[in-house]
Write a structure and sequence with these properties.
The structure holds two protein chains of two kinds. By secondary structure, chain A is an all-alpha fold. A two-stranded antiparallel sheet of chain A has the order 1-2. In chain A, helix 8 packs across helix 14. Chain A is elongated, with a radius of gyration of 23 Å. Chain B folds into two domains: 216 residues, Rossmann fold (3-Layer(aba) Sandwich), CATH 3.40.50; 62 residues, ACT domain (Alpha-Beta Plaits). Chain B is 41% helix and 27% strand. Chain B contains twelve helices and 14 strands. In chain B, the strands form three sheets. Chain B has a six-stranded mixed β-sheet, sandwiched between helices. In chain B, helix 3 runs parallel beside helix 5, helix 4 packs antiparallel against helix 5 and helix 8 crosses helix 11. The chains are: A mainly alpha, B alpha/beta. At the A-B interface, helix 1, helix 2 and helix 7 of A face helix 2, helix 3 and helix 4 of B.
């Protein structure tokens, strides 16, 4: 507690002299859950401050999903229209998957800041502080997830271009699903960052994961009628379990025939059994929590 | 007065290499205590143990009354750290870096603003608090780190090579700030350095070599304990000169830094005799009062630069064995 009260705006000479000659007592309190939460909050806010000052990153990470939606979506639409029921745009079909992609890169790469912090020494400032390691890991995850969700929301604003209606319920559902996905992906990135010491290695490794995750998620094609090997791979991809509910939500708000719905948004099936939306989301959440737990355990070990 | 740091039979072993081989010492409250030695002598390892960043292999260390292994977090709350390498976020402003630190260390919110101003004014960075750290010079960054280390009013401030990598002028100014802070703050400073001139700023110093403390006292007492002046000469034939010094004067001389070096009582009276009786032509002479360099030499048999040359090899061995961290 401060034993001395100094008004911060008190700029009189006398106060300045007092400032200089007397030491302001600061007693750092015992460790408590409140102190840990304060640590979570500042680690989180730091990510936001850094993101705010890095507008270039905000723009560049939107380039890829925009390319996919407009260039790939438009370019392939004439080809794809043969397989699509009339009135359904190919862009509408891939929109949920590309929306997931808009957070994919940002979420995983935001964990790169941990590797970056390690290389530039700042991680040490955090690791030597008298706070629990989980507070730092959770702060990082929340920070990365917030930034990624924000990116997703910008992309969500483009829904109309893909003929997805601006229905409040739909938008809220998609935003919630984006948040869940962001947290899980950031946890995945942080888990990897705990082990990897060089930024180049981290970038190379995430590149290795990111595109397969995206291509195997059913973001660009329906999940039914695939060859057996691809069926198995798509079911292993965690991204599948978020793209399917997002597509379900979108098509729920479109006037499409039941037959077309079955063809375009069949949901994830395990040997014929359709995985319910709730379970699908729960799978993503549980995976996120498991990876978060691993990340925390990893960070306990590092000095 | 109670010691704020007490270390007993401390050792640290990395595989087969003993970085610290059984050291004991105490630091009194309010003291500025310097750990002096060549690079790789065990200074940084010791400071890491005291800061709870490494566990000792054996022995105990207590800082601010708490065991560094068993009460790690309590120790951490009571110490401030300034590392050799910067640990600032260069994308944040000076103030943001300090706010981050305050939140991590739980500095009471009401105390933050006045304390921020106090520590920033102390290191002369108050006017630059809103600038991004990337725009700071090396000396300013080091000063900001010192301010940050003080922010939570620690009982002990650890400075690991606070001036390494800085130009001589900046080194001097960093020391002005450290001396100023000694006056203003009720704090114990523990620092490591391999600059002899900087060790003069300490109340007491411990000389560490090959993981052991070879001498520990005030700089004055250490210099007085040698009592002799150092004479360095360059001659036409150095080996002949060394033999002649032994034969004629009974003096043990050796080559250091490319010069024939030896110690005598009152060097200024000895030099005329040297010219009169040494059979080898003398090209230059220098006489110096005992410095901490001589103290180091008299306790370890080599100058600190000689020591660094040999220890460099040992460090490379450690580095290749354990990889860079």
């Amino acid at each position: 507690m401060a034993t001395k009260d100094i008004a911060t705006q008190d700029d009189s000479l006398e106060a300045q002299e007092r400032d200089l000659t007397e030491m302001i007592r600061v007693a750092v309190p015992e460790r408590s859950i409140r102190a840990d939460l304060r640590a979570v909050s500042i680690v989180w806010r730091r990510e936001l401050i850094r993101f705010r000052s890095d507008r270039l990153r905000a723009i560049t990470s939107l380039v890829q999903p925009v390319l996919f939606l407009f260039v790939l979506g438009t370019g392939l639409s004439s080809l794809a229209s043969h397989g699509l029921p009339s009135g359904v745009d190919f862009k509408t079909f891939i929109y949920p998957g590309v929306l997931a992609m808009s957070v994919l890169f940002t979420a995983i790469f935001s964990a790169a800041s941990i590797v970056w912090d390690r290389e530039f020494g700042f991680l040490r400032e955090m690791l030597v502080a008298p706070v629990r390691r989980w507070a730092i890991v959770i702060g990082k995850c929340l920070g990365g997830a917030t930034v990624a969700t924000f990116q997703g929301l910008i992309f969500l604003a483009l829904a109309g271009v893909a003929h997805v209606p601006y229905d409040p319920v739909l938008l809220l559902t998609l935003a919630g699903e984006l948040l869940l996905l962001s947290v899980t992906l950031t946890a995945f990135g942080v888990m990897m960052a705990a082990r990897i010491k060089q930024i180049q290695a981290f970038m190379a490794l995430t590149q290795l994961f990111v595109l397969p995750l995206f291509f195997l998620s059913g973001a660009l094609y329906p999940l039914n009628g695939l060859p057996a090997w691809l069926t198995v791979l798509t079911r292993i991809d965690p991204l599948t379990y978020i793209v399917a509910p997002m597509r379900h939500a979108v098509f729920d708000h479109l006037a499409v025939s039941p037959l077309a719905l079955q063809a375009l948004s069949p949901g994830v099936t395990w040997g014929g059994w359709v995985v319910p939306i709730g379970l699908s989301l729960a799978i993503v959440a549980v995976m996120g929590l498991v990876m978060l737990a691993i990340a925390i355990a990893e960070f306990r070990k590092t000095e | 007065m109670n010691p704020v740091i007490s270390v007993s039979e401390l050792t640290k072993r990395y595989g087969e290499i003993e970085a610290v081989r059984g050291i004991d010492f105490e630091v009194a409250t309010g003291e500025t205590f310097g750990f002096l030695g060549p690079n790789g002598a065990g200074k940084s390892t010791t400071i890491k143990i005291l800061c709870t960043l490494a566990d000792p292999t054996s022995g105990t260390a207590r800082v601010a009354g708490h065991d560094v292994v068993k009460e790690r977090d309590t120790v951490r709350r009571n110490i401030g750290l300034v590392f050799q390498d910067t640990t600032l976020d260069s994308y944040l402003t000076g103030e943001q870096n300090l706010r981050f630190h305050a939140d991590l260390y739980g500095v009471p919110k009401a105390a933050f603003a006045p304390r921020l101003r106090q520590v920033l004014e102390m290191v002369g960075l108050w006017d630059r608090r809103d600038s991004v750290v990337a725009t700071y010079s090396g000396g300013m960054q080091r000063r900001l780190e010192i301010a940050r280390g003080l922010l939570h009013a620690p009982r002990v401030l650890f400075l690991d090579e606070p001036t390494v990598g800085l130009d001589p002028q900046t080194r001097v100014s960093i020391w002005e700030y450290i001396n100023e802070l000694k006056k203003r703050e009720d704090i114990t400073i523990f620092l490591t350095t391999h600059y002899m001139d900087e060790a003069e700023n300490c109340d007491r110093i411990a000389i560490i070599d090959h993981g052991k403390i070879v001498a520990i006292d005030t700089p004055e007492a250490l210099k007085a304990s040698i009592g002799k002046d150092r004479v360095q000469i360059s001659t036409a034939d150095d080996q002949a000169a060394i033999r002649a010094l032994a034969d004629v004067f009974g003096i043990d001389a050796a080559m250091h830094e490319g010069l024939v070096t030896f110690s005598v009582e009152s060097g200024e009276h000895f030099v005329p005799q040297l010219f009169a009786r040494l059979p080898v032509a003398i090209q230059s002479v220098s006489v110096s009062r005992p410095s901490l360099d001589d103290v180091f030499m008299s306790y370890t048999g080599k100058t600190i630069r000689d020591a660094e040359a040999t220890i460099g090899d040992r460090n490379r061995m450690i580095a290749t064995r354990f990889g860079r961290r």
